[in-house]
Design a protein that fits this description.
mainly beta
């Protein structure tokens, strides 16, 4: 994959449950991380006393973090309400020249920051809440 513009990593939200995705606020930075928990199956007969892991075992998860500016009062109110209600919604993450990840996420952190001589910004974190699908571009 050649170098890409960071702004092309898009986070979209199905805001009304109809399958129509809209860009989430004005994110200036975004991070998508995948993790998988390993299951240790090492026993006394493991070759050379090296740890062994269960193939295909464990729990997979994805986390998204982002920071930026709210585009309008509606997106501010929507994300804030989803956080306080613990709402789980479908999100879509587009990774340029790689693919699109779609699935359910929950907002697990929402922080607001403001300086007296600057704009109000926010940081948010989302955690996967079910199986995710991936479609290559």
């Amino acid at each position: 994959m050649a170098a890409q513009k960071g702004k092309d990593l898009l986070l979209k939200l199905d805001s009304n449950g109809s399958g129509t995705f809209v860009t989430v606020a004005g994110l200036r930075s975004r991070v998508l991380a995948f993790n998988a928990q390993a299951i240790d199956i090492t026993d006394m007969d493991s070759a050379g006393e090296w740890r062994e892991l269960l193939d295909g075992g464990g729990i997979k998860r994805a986390g998204i973090t982002g920071s930026g500016l709210f585009r309008d009062a509606a997106s501010d109110a929507l994300l804030r309400q989803y956080f306080f209600d613990g709402t789980i919604r479908d999100y879509e993450v587009t990774i340029p020249d790689f693919g699109v990840l779609t699935g359910k996420f929950q907002i697990t952190a929402l922080e607001f920051t403001g300086r007296h001589d600057g704009e109000l910004s926010f940081d948010m974190a989302l955690e996967s809440a079910g199986q995710l699908s991936f479609a290559a571009l």
